[in-house]
Protein: Response regulator
Organism: Duganella levis
Amino acid sequence: MRILLTEDDPQLGRATQIGLEQNGYAVDWVTSAEHARTAARLHDYGCVLLDLGLPDQDGMQVLAGLRDTGYQGAVLVVTARDHIRQRIAGLDAGADDFIIKPFDLDELAARIRSASRRAAGRLREQLVHGNLVLDIADRHVTQAGQTVTLTMKEFLILQMLVEQAGRVLSREQLEKNLYSWGDEVESNAVQVHIHHLRRKLGRELIRTVHAVGYCIDKPAAP
């Protein structure tokens, strides 16, 4: 999943970006409300981590603007403000959750998963597709009860394809959710990951739609 992080503290912003990237997320980090609005307009984010104390505009205004322009992903407010009225106002404006600074990165990652799950309409941290089971929290995959070892990028591609089973996802769509700004991406990176997934899970699982992209078909009705 690709995350937009807004944080004007350089030390905290960089530490948060590195920590989330180590958890497998692609993280674009901005330091102002203006840059946050521009990034949200140009890219499709699964989650926005929003600092309220931005230098050019209060984060609450950014939150309202995101929802007014139709952003449907999760918004997690990350703030040093610990007043109940501000939390209520944030939730009413469209925030999915709050986390108070300083925070633990493992807790932040868990809250991101929870907020993103609710935004996507999932009730559990698990995706099931036929005999394939994906545990989102642990990044663990089983097929017919047997553990399948995947790299982080392989898991994320599989998760995207299973979540949108029946829909064809282009290479560009997959890349945008796998890589942050500035990442060097080989032109055949997604193709290589798909090849490894087919080798581990069976060639029939992921279908190539010529000149369009890749698809996992919906399971057959019982």
